[in-house]
Amino acid sequence: MIKNIDDCVKSLESVTDEKRIVAVLKESFAQNGDIKRKVSILKEFNDVIESLVDKLKVK
Fold first, then answer.
1. From CA 45, how far away is CA 17, in angstroms rounded?
2. How far apart are CA 13 and CA 38, in angstroms?
3. Domain layout of the chain by residue ranges
4. Contact in structure between 44 and 3 (CB atoms under 8 Å)
5. Strand, helix or coil at 3?
6. Which of 19, 11, 50, 12 is CA-nearest to residue 42?
């Protein structure tokens, strides 16, 4: 799932298409009932977003 989000984020020039990212998150959360898994997903998602923000700062 994180790879899908990362690919989605990398395909964006900005964060204008966040609906695609949210859709991936919703799908994953619907499939995974384990709270530890959800926390892990959110931590990884945070890393992806931080990476995107860093890249946007460079531009």
1. 16
2. 27
3. 2-58
4. no
5. helix
6. 50
The three-state (H, E, C) secondary structure of 11-57, written as one string = CCCCCCCHHHHHHHHHHHHHHCCCHHHHHHHHHHHHHHHHHHHHHHH
pLDDT value at position 10? 64
- pLDDT(35) > 60: yes
Residue given tokens 């384990």 in the structure block: 34
How much is the average pLDDT of 36-57?
79
Residue 40, both tokens: 């892990």
Q: What token pair was written down for 42?
A: 């959110």
| Tens digits of residue pLDDT in 4-27 | 666 666 665 555 556 766 777 777
Contact between 13 and 59 (Cβ < 8 Å): no
